[in-house]
Amino acid sequence: MSDMPRRCCISIDVDPIPCYYKIHSLGTPPADLRSRILCTSLPRFAAILAARDIKATFFIVAEDVDVHALGNDAIAMRAALREIRDLGHEIANHSYNHPYELARLGRIETREQLGKAHDLLSDFTGSPIRGFRAPGYDISPTTLEELIARNYLYDSSVFPAPGYYFAKALVMGALRLMGRKSGAVMTNVRALTAPIRPYHPSAEAPWRRGASSLVELPVAVTSLSRTPVIGTNLLLAPRWLRDHWLRSMAKRDFFNLEMHGIDLCDAEDDDIPSALVARQPDLRVPATVKMASLAAILDTLIASGTEMCTLREFASTIE
Asked: Which of 89, 166, 236, 298 lies deepest, with the highest CB count within 10 Å?
């Protein structure tokens, strides 16, 4: 890969609001919030990306397009997602209904989660889905085997960030002390030592190099401290720190800039309940401010000569 040009892939996890209520142990969210993130943030991403002729990868929770399960909500989300599809962005598999414990499920349940999502999303896009990201960044040998059986080109679940892992543990522990249980699950600690550059994983231990047919595309972290270089951090960091992280990524052949749909939402414009805003401070920042930050990040990358592409396009270049 040393002869390859520098490439950046924007990959966006479009997790619906019920996922955040589950993480923060907030109970059942109002029913009318289900489509809020997908229907409000995707047009914002689309406008920023289109202005720069950038194609991104959107990881979709397939239940959001399942009309039989969600009715009118799914119809509304299909309309928003259809725009993304028709603009040429990649749509990828983020499981059927985002179980954080996916890596701990048995083979039958794993197959159902991946298979149902694969079929729904492939039918929606009109072509087979080729990429996957696990809920909670936790990939298991069983999940990997099921992806290979469906001829997936890549997985992008590994997030080797010790700081994120321990921050997550603190939040989950604090909730437990308050008598509340987070719906999140701790990832396999061995994944924290995984390679930070693309690799073919071992079938028995996806966090190690091996000979699997698909390629693992890790979420970006810095080289020494393994600090996450993801959307939430970049959008909210002071400019000097953001520029420092981008310079460090410019030395890489590959930069997997992972974001979330909620990154371009805000409490006021999108009428997000105060209970969630209290747990997600980034929602207090106006969407216009975060959109301007994202535009600046992309302009910096383009000016540096970085080539922008989808994860599928990048994975197809790796032997």
From this structure: 89
Sign for the pseudo-dihedral over CA of 250, 283, 65, 26: positive
Residue 2 domain flag: no
How many other C-beta atoms lie within 10 A of the C-beta of residue 136?
Answer: 22
Q: How many CB atoms lie within 10 A of CB 51?
A: 11
**Beta carbons of 112 and 91 less than 8 angstroms apart:** no
| Number of domains forming the structure of the chain | 1
The identity of residue 295, as a single letter, is: A
Q: What CATH number does residue 122 fall under?
A: 3.20.20.370
Cβ–Cβ < 8 Å for 75, 83:
no
pLDDT in tens, 72-87: 999 999 999 999 999 9
Residue 98 lies in a domain: yes
Residue 97: Cβ within 10 Å count: 19
Helix (H) or strand (E) holding 94: none
Round to whole Å and give the CA distance between 96 and 101.
13
Residues of the domain holding 172 = 7-315
Whether 110 maps to a domain, the answer reads yes
**Residue pLDDT, tens place only, 160-217:** 999 999 888 998 899 898 899 999 999 899 999 999 999 999 999 999 999 999 999 9
What global pTM score does this model have? 0.96
